Amino acid sequence: MNLKDLKYLVALADTGHFGKAAERTFVSQPTLSAQLKKLEEFLGVKLVERQPNNVQLTDVGKQVVIRARRMLEHGEEIVALARNQADPLSGRIKVALIPTVGPYLLPRVTQKIRKALPNLGLMLYEYQTEPLLKRLRDGEIDLGIIALPSDAEGLESRVLYQEAFMLAIPQQHPLRDKAVIKIQDLQGQALLLLEDGHCLRDQALEVCSRVDVHEVEDFRATSLETLRQMVVAGLGITLLPELAVESPFGGQRGLTIRPFAKPAPSRTIGAVWRKSSTRTAAIGEFCRVVDQVMARRG
């Protein structure tokens, strides 16, 4: 048994298809199938149920995959540890951001990070919180940028910045006459929200829980930009995080933005990573640059 065989098995578990698993691991399909059969012979158990157009792992196969992921993660960490001894701020670092942060934070920090860490290659991804945390624990990414607090059991975390929520309303909305919005002003309003799975949805509901607002059930947006367009169309109001308001699209025609009265509702954005990560030096420098950029903004 070797790490390559385990990598083939994990790829098959992820794709559910021999051909796709072979593509992912850069081998031919017959080679991958043969190696998995050898792995089954070595272990003395059947790992895969092979049926036409239907590939499934056996119960023991599923248990093996869980442990194989851990072994592959540790193997990658051993390689990274050796490489990082020469220059801990070189190589690639895989960073994932939630969709309500990535498009608005990255334009502010990417060039600064590139300048401060010229030998560090950024690989950027975008996932909702739960898939992001799963990929982080599975070793597929090195660093996650999410809203805190979250289910970060077994992970390290640190706060990066706070951002206030602001109210987005159609241009001709009655609340436009108010310079500052109180939560009570939202009483009876139609609230537009993101679809399930976005942490911003839960945060907006929490902010509005003290008053009687009703969600527009017929419309749920997949992104903040779609949500913004729904407000412009007069379908309701919504809450936007401050960085999204300050983006190039924040002041578009037909949209009115109003701040909340202090203390304004806000969210905490932070970084999370595995306690066992070998990229802690690079992660620390990445976070330091974000800290600096966001501190200057305030």
Topology:
Elements: H1 3-15, H2 18-25, H3 29-43, E1 48-51, E2 54-57, H4 59-86, E3 91-97, H5 102-116, E4 120-126, H6 129-137, E5 143-148, E6 155-170, E7 190-194, H7 199-207, E8 214-221, H8 224-232, E9 238-241, H9 242-245, E10 255-259, E11 266-274, H10 280-297
Parallel strand pairs: 3-4, 3-5, 7-8
Antiparallel strand pairs: 1-2, 5-11, 6-9, 6-10, 6-11
What keyword list fits this structure?
single chain, alpha/beta, D-Maltodextrin-Binding Protein, domain 2, 2 domains, 10 helices
Report on this model:
There is one protein chain. With 298 residues, the protein is α/β, with parallel strands linked by helices. It folds into two domains: 3-84, Arc Repressor Mutant, subunit A; 89-298, D-Maltodextrin-Binding Protein, domain 2, CATH 3.40.190.290. It is 43% helix and 25% strand. It contains ten helices and eleven strands. Strands 3, 4, 5, 6, 9, 10 and 11 form a seven-stranded mixed β-sheet that branches. A two-stranded antiparallel ribbon has the order 1-2. Helix 1 (3-15) crosses helix 2, helix 1 (3-15) packs across helix 3 and helix 5 packs across helix 10 (280-297). The chain is globular and about 75 Å long. The termini are far apart. The mean pLDDT is 88.
What is the approximate shape?
globular
The number of distinct β-strands equals 11
Number of helices: 10
Into which percent range does the helicity of residues fall?
Answer: 40-55%
Structural class: alpha/beta
* Overall CATH architecture of the largest domain: 3-Layer(aba) Sandwich
- Would you tell me which CATH topology of the largest domain applies? D-Maltodextrin-Binding Protein, domain 2
- Text of the CATH class of the largest domain: Alpha Beta
What fraction of residues sit in β-strands?
Answer: 25-35%
- Largest sheet features: 7 strands, mixed
Order of helices and strands: HHHEEHEHEHEEEHEHEHEEH
The average pLDDT score comes to 88
| Radius of gyration over all CA atoms, rounded | 23 Å
The poorly predicted ranges are none
Q: How many separate structural domains?
A: 2
